[in-house]
């Protein structure tokens, strides 16, 4: 676990994501620091979470594509547990709203509409890192 | 085919326990099944349809039919979309009865999260194995309270809803629970009590949350011809609706729930409007759950829920719409972390005229019961029932 500056949200132990044959390419890319999203070729729309078929048409005509990793906070909530954290939906610049955390900033500074960029945080047991977001 | 008038609720029973240290989950199911049969004036071997959801142990109807000794079953249904499942079960029972698949349906719910010291709302939790969204959300610390906090935060941002307005929902529930000797929280609270209670998942406070309790409930649903031979008032299914709402590939809008569709379907089937409803059982896992559902069901415009619930408008005998007159999940009981069953039971009490006299809505002939199962902020199942006293 990394050290945090005073006043900044503390990192916490994150459980490793469960890898399955369909989501593995997403997590392999995460290990390389790349945020991937699904792309539906039938509708020219991005989607999240990625899967092997389009949630818009159910067609298998989909790809995994790299996102820019930037977006805005759609909503958030501070979980007031022993190590508080900020759960959030971030709306990616590509469109999808993804469930994530806001990190590396003071808890009381978070606002809806704030610009954020992806930062990958390590998980336990050498699991794949997970995409969280910090204010730009 | 319309389900209007195809079935009646003739038995309803809520377990009085709120902490079941001495009862197993299966036994709690048996307790409530017996209670509902006694209420209806029917016997075990009258039951030929059985409905249960994810709170039932093992393979649901298979293990429970064995435990309960149900030997005449011709029909079983284990539809599970969380706490609202039992509202859907009533509709599914009506459909099965109309199709001739059964005559007397038993629906049970039971659980003991409190005795098991389950971290219900504040710890990340999966609903099973191979759940495709879990790898993307469990590491993020997705919790029940957090998922509803996300909805409340967005609602406040878009519509200016305040914590004080949300608090009025708890205040109303507490005024009702005051009259319920079985309620976990019997003390009347104020808006200040709610907003001064500790934050759990911003902007939701501890008193914006429902209780964690053990217990359960059961219903008996049958065809009208049989219902007329029994001694209980005729509580008829008049309107039904269901909707699954989810993230839709990332296009999720947190300001509304599946109630928008399930409510519209139920009102259309019933041929009535929200203006006709004076009592409603509204799923109340959190105060924000109530507010968003009331808007979606059409009791007020989207975004106006804060003004609608304020100033005691949900208190029986005081406001426009009496809600959850047993104290609801917010103050009375939220057995197995699933509030749908108790919503139906209190609506039945109201229609029978058997609610506590201090909260009974006079001359009631129509009632609505509505639930949200799963998580409002990620994916959930909504189910709406409109019931009528014939």
From TrEMBL, chain A:
**Location of the ChsH2 C-terminal OB-fold domain:** 65-121
Q: Which InterPro entries does the record associate with it?
A: ChsH2_C (IPR002878), ChsH2_Znr (IPR022002), NA-bd_OB-fold (IPR012340), Thioester_dehydratase-like (IPR052513)
The chain positions of domain ChsH2 rubredoxin-like zinc ribbon read 27-51
Query: By what name is this protein known?
Result: DUF35 domain-containing protein
Q: What species is this protein from?
A: Humitalea rosea
From TrEMBL, chain B:
- What InterPro entries does the record point to? Thiolase, Thiolase-like, Thiolase_C_2
Please provide the record's keywords in A-Z order: Transferase
- Thiolase C-terminal domain residues: 251-388
Q: What GO annotations for molecular function exist for this entry?
A: acetyl-CoA C-acyltransferase activity
Among the Pfam families in the record, one is Thiolase_C_1
The protein's matches in CDD domains, at most eight in alphabetical order, are given as: SCP-x_thiolase (cd00829)
| Top-level taxon of the source organism | Bacteria
Descriptive protein name: Acetyl-CoA C-acetyltransferase
Q: Which organism is it from?
A: Humitalea rosea
């Amino acid at each position: 676990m990394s050290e945090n500056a005073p006043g900044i949200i503390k990192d916490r132990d994150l459980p490793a994501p469960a890898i399955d044959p369909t989501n593995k390419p997403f997590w392999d890319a995460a290990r390389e620091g790349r945020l991937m999203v699904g792309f539906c070729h039938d509708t020219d729309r991005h989607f999240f979470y990625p899967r092997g078929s389009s949630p818009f048409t159910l067609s298998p005509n989909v790809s995994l594509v790299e996102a820019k990793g930037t977006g805005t906070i759609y909503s958030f909530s501070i979980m007031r547990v022993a190590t508080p954290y900020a759960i959030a939906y971030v709306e990616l610049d590509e469109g999808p709203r993804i469930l994530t955390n806001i990190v590396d900033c003071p808890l009381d500074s978070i606002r809806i509409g704030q610009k954020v960029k992806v930062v990958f945080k390590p998980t336990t047991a050498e699991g794949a890192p997970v995409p969280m977001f910090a204010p730009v | 085919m319309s389900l209007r008038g195809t079935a009646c609720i003739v038995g309803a029973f809520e377990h009085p326990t709120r902490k079941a240290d001495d009862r197993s989950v299966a036994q709690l199911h048996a307790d409530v099944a017996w209670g509902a049969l006694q209420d209806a004036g029917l016997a075990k071997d009258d039951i030929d349809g059985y409905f249960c959801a994810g709170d039932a142990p093992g393979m649901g109807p298979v293990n429970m039919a064995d435990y309960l000794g149900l030997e005449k079953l011709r029909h079983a249904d284990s539809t599970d979309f969380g706490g609202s499942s039992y509202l859907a079960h009533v509709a599914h029972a009506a459909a099965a009865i109309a199709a001739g698949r059964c005559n007397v349906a038993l629906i049970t719910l039971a659980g003991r999260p409190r005795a098991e010291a389950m971290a219900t709302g504040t710890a990340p939790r999966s609903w099973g194995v191979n759940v495709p969204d879990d790898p993307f959300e469990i590491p993020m610390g997705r919790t029940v309270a957090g998922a509803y906090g996300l909805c409340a935060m967005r609602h406040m941002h878009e519509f200016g809803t305040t914590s004080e307005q949300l608090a009025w929902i708890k205040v109303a529930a507490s005024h009702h629970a005051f009259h319920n000797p079985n309620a976990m929280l019997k003390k009347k609270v104020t808006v200040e009590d709610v907003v001064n209670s500790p934050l759990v998942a911003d902007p939701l406070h501890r008193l914006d949350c429902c209780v964690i309790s053990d217990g359960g409930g059961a219903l008996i649903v049958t065809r009208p011809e049989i219902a007329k031979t029994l001694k209980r008032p005729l509580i008829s299914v008049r309107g039904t609706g269901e909707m699954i709402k989810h993230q839709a590939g990332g296009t999720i809008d947190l300001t509304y729930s599946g109630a928008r569709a399930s409510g519209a379907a139920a009102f259309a089937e019933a041929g009535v409007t929200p203006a006709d409803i004076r009592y409603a059982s509204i799923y109340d896992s959190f105060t924000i759950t109530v507010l968003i559902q009331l808007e979606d069901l059409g009791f007020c415009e989207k975004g106006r829920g804060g003004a609608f619930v304020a100033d005691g408008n949900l208190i029986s005998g005081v406001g426009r719409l009496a809600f959850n007159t047993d104290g609801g999940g917010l103050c009375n009981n939220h057995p197995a972390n699933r509030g749908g069953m108790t919503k139906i039971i209190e609506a039945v009490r109201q229609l029978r005229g058997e609610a506590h006299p201090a909260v009974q809505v006079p001359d009631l002939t129509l009632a609505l019961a509505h639930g949200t199962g799963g998580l409002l902020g990620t994916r959930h199942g909504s189910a709406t029932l409109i019931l009528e006293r014939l």
